Amino acid sequence: MAKLIQYDDGYLNRTPIFQFVLLSCLFALWGGAASLNDILITQFKSIFTLSDFASALVQSAFYGGYFLISIPASVVIRKTTYKLAIMVGLIFFIGGCSLFFPASMMATYTMFLVAIFAMAIGLGFLETASNTYSTMLGPRKYSTLRLNISQTFQPIGSASGILLGKYLVFQEGDSLASQMAQLSPEQVHMFRLQMLQHTLEPYKIIICVLVAVFILFLITKYPKCKVKSAVDNTVAKVSLGETLKYLAGNNLFKKGILAQFLYVGMQVAVWSFTIRLALVLIPHINEREAADFMVFSFACFFVGKFVANFLMTKFSVNKVLLAYSIIGCILILYVAFMPNLTAIYAAVAISILLGPCWATIYAETLKSVEKKYTETAGAIIVMSIIGGAVMPAIQGFVSDTTGSMQFSFIVNFFCFAYIGYYFYHKIKIER
């Protein structure tokens, strides 16, 4: 096998397979952690007798942590190495998962939110480092392909997280609300403590996996993949202030930031409340059976990525995403207003349309920025993930206010409508 050589631009002459596969496994880890939030929202809703708005704060804590750590993580990467940033992320991830144990003993919702926030800090480090590192681990011409391969691990991890939650957190028998309605106040308290212990089970497995992955990263030699010299002398260095001033005046960039904010918010909101929607529309099923709809959703998300990739080789990227947005708006209206269980299948089908959105909006938004400003612009686009903290809370508030979980899905209609407008605007620019 040819000797591994790093070029001046940070790329390699070949891809080190073991290191690349190990790195790609991190994508599955944060996919699993994120999907477990959908389980926790349903579980905590009943255990702590929360409103839909309060239960959505699980996502606010999670994506709030992502938002706050993005810039500090990028600074650590710039001053040290990708590998060190990943190991810091794994330590925070393990620490956040470990906080679930005292949280279950204290039996307070706030302590669980603290644990989720700490976990998200670790995931923020992992995702900030891994996305770029994946593109760098090999020849430059295959950088996008490597990232796409790594990203296919994420829905696999998401489905695994849901299955862990289904079989380890959710239990057999009637739904939690039905069981608690038949108990005395003293019995309800003991029942809640028992259910919180079940919440720990998937995190015990995750901690073991994380420790193993941490050890593997510790003993595995990784190339630095850092730029050794200025390979493109035409790119001038600019200050942060100048960059922010330029981006603030770039209307197309600002439209893209809003589109990404709404997309992430919509995706998280739809996934957060799919299980709850199933429990509302099919009263006789329990949480474990309702979790199957999330497994189907992640399968649709996985398939949707490949379908979109094929379509985008045949048609304009902007036209494909405009069509996806129009279909998405129709499906969301169906979910919000069709008073039977087919609305759940429509909610699952929405995931087919979510697959290509993040990467496409990211790339199209970055195209609107001059090359010398792209590094900071990319970090700001990543920070738009804060939409995942905002939109589920808004949907939860609408559900509480109207008394209809089903109608609350209308919030996502406006998100998809704006995304459609964004890509329609891009088509007009193309012409």
Strand content: under 5%
**In CATH, what is the homologous superfamily of the largest domain?**
MFS general substrate transporter like domains
- The mean pLDDT is 86
CATH topology of the largest domain, anyone?
Answer: Growth Hormone, Chain: A
**CATH class bucket of the largest domain:** Mainly Alpha
Subcellular location: Cell inner membrane
Membrane topology: Multi-pass membrane protein
Keywords: Cell membrane, Membrane, Transmembrane, Transmembrane helix
Protein name: L-fucose permease
Q: Can you characterise this structure?
A:
By secondary structure, the protein is mostly helical. The protein is built from 20 helices and no strands. The protein has two domains: 9-224, MFS general substrate transporter like domains (Growth Hormone, Chain: A, Up-down Bundle); 236-431, Up-down Bundle (Growth Hormone, Chain: A), CATH 1.20.1250.20. The radius of gyration is 22 Å and the shape is globular. The model is unreliable at 230-236 (pLDDT under 50). It is a multi-pass membrane protein. Keywords: Cell membrane, Membrane, Transmembrane, Transmembrane helix.
